């Protein structure tokens, strides 16, 4: 079902996919996390490998078997995910940020488990995490500026982001696409049993330059195939 007669149109391409959700430690036993299962990112990695790509999958806290043919790098925190993605992106043609990255982390990580006391609990102060996707977009933008307008060699050639929105899905998505400097943004509407932990998904893929491609509700493999079709069309 993954190939459906498609050629190995990603043969010779290096792709990086992030999947799952990052966790930020509060103390040795607790963390701030999110509900991402990693299913969509794993489907993307599996599909890319089946279409011939050399795949590095950066997996944050995912409890799924390794996809056939992908190199898997396991991470926990946003800082670790950032290191692994930037390292793998050095010579990549495509990066797909399907991971749900924690926007905030506790300002301090307690070395010992926080104990209950008779009084009120202490507040957890939060610090902002780096935006990895925006950083990738910004690095590419400045590399292109350095090399001049005609800059075919700048990598990654295609940068793909994901976004889960609860309202004003398209308007929020369009603003996010521009803000992050990516080429494609896969926008999910969350809620109504969509997205988290389920095998099916529906999405709108926003393409830089204007068009929007609707992918109807169906297996996450179908959305993965649609994303790689759009990526392959943008690769030179
Ligand atoms: N992302 C990232 N680093 C972050 C936060 C998000 O690389 N610190 C990436 C995600 O992997 C995803 C995209 O950015 O591909 C959009 O994530 P999203 O959470 O929708 O965007 P935010 O900019 O964090 O905006 P908000 O959560 O406020 O909607
Ligand atoms: Ca976010």
Automatic annotation (TrEMBL):
Q: What is its EC number?
A: 4.1.1.36, 6.3.2.5
Q: Give the region (Phosphopantothenate--cysteine ligase) as residue ranges.
A: 15-236
Give residue ranges for domain DNA/pantothenate metabolism flavoprotein C-terminal. 10-233
Q: Which residues are noted in the entry as CTP-binding?
A: 103, 113, 130-133, 162, 176, 180
- Please provide, alphabetically and separated by semicolons, the GO molecular function terms listed in this UniProt record: FMN binding; metal ion binding; phosphopantothenate--cysteine ligase activity; phosphopantothenoylcysteine decarboxylase activity
What does it do? Catalyzes two sequential steps in the biosynthesis of coenzyme A. In the first step cysteine is conjugated to 4'-phosphopantothenate to form 4-phosphopantothenoylcysteine. In the second step the latter compound is decarboxylated to form 4'-phosphopantotheine.
Named in its record, the pathway it takes part in is:
Cofactor biosynthesis; coenzyme A biosynthesis; CoA from (R)-pantothenate: step 2/5; Cofactor biosynthesis; coenzyme A biosynthesis; CoA from (R)-pantothenate: step 3/5
Which reaction does this enzyme catalyse, per its entry?
Answer: N-[(R)-4-phosphopantothenoyl]-L-cysteine + H(+) = (R)-4'-phosphopantetheine + CO2; (R)-4'-phosphopantothenate + L-cysteine + CTP = N-[(R)-4-phosphopantothenoyl]-L-cysteine + CMP + diphosphate + H(+)
User: In which family does this protein belong, per the annotation?
Assistant: In the C-terminal section; belongs to the PPC synthetase family.
Q: Which cofactor does it need?
A: Mg(2+); FMN
Its GO CC terms are: phosphopantothenoylcysteine decarboxylase complex
Task: Note how many cofactor molecules are bound and how.
Answer: Binds 1 FMN per subunit.
From what superkingdom does this record's organism come? Bacteria
Q: What is this protein called?
A: Coenzyme A biosynthesis bifunctional protein CoaBC
